[in-house]
C-alpha cells in the first residue's frame, strides 16, 4: 500500500521523488550550503616576476669565482677564451687564485672560497665601475 488509503503500491515514493530530485540538484550544483549560486572561479595565479638581468660586474664576479675554484682545485686548465672570460677578467682570476692558494693551505677551503668571492666581486666591480672597459671583447 502507498499513502494511507492509496491503493497503489509505491505512491509515497512517487510523491517524494520530485522533492528529492530538486534537493539533490540544488545541493550538487550550488555553492556550499546549497544556495544554488555558483562560486566565482579562482583567479589565475600570477606569474612570478622574471629575475633582474645580471650586470656586467655581477656576471664577471660569478664567472671569475667559478673558474677560480676550478683552477684552485686543479680540475681545469684552459685559456681565458675557453672559460668565457676576457683578457682583463682572466687577469683578475689569476690574482684571485694567487691570493687564495696560501689561504686554503693555512685556513682551509671554506676560507679560500670566501676570499675568492670577495676578491672577484671587488675586482669586477672596479673593472666595470664606469661601464665596459673597451669595445674589444678580449679587453
Describe it.
The protein has helices at 11-29, 56-73, 87-107, 109-127. The chain is an all-alpha fold and 139 residues long. It is extended and about 65 Å long.
H/E series: HHHH
Specify the structural class.
Answer: mainly alpha
Mean pLDDT: 77
Q: How many runs of DSSP E, i.e. beta strands? A: 0
Distance between the termini: 103 Å
Q: What is the helix tally?
A: 4
Into which percent range does the helicity of residues fall? 55-70%
Approximate strand percentage: under 5%
Task: Give the arrangement of secondary structure elements.
Blueprint: H1 11-29, H2 56-73, H3 87-107, H4 109-127
Helix pairs in contact: 2-3, 2-4, 3-4
Amino acid at each position: 500500500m502507498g499513502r494511507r488509503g492509496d491503493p497503489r503500491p509505491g505512491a509515497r515514493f512517487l510523491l517524494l521523488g520530485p522533492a528529492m530530485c530538486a534537493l539533490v540538484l540544488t545541493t550538487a550544483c550550488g555553492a556550499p550550503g546549497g544556495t544554488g549560486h555558483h562560486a566565482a572561479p579562482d583567479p589565475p595565479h600570477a606569474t612570478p616576476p622574471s629575475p633582474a638581468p645580471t650586470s656586467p660586474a655581477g656576471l664577471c664576479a660569478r664567472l671569475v669565482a667559478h673558474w677560480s675554484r676550478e683552477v684552485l682545485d686543479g680540475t681545469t686548465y684552459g685559456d681565458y677564451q675557453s672559460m668565457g672570460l676576457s683578457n682583463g677578467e682572466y687577469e683578475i682570476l689569476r690574482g684571485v687564485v694567487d691570493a687564495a692558494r696560501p689561504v686554503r693551505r693555512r685556513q682551509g677551503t671554506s676560507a679560500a672560497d670566501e676570499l675568492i668571492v670577495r676578491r672577484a666581486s671587488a675586482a669586477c666591480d672596479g673593472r666595470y665601475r664606469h661601464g665596459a672597459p673597451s669595445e674589444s671583447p678580449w679587453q
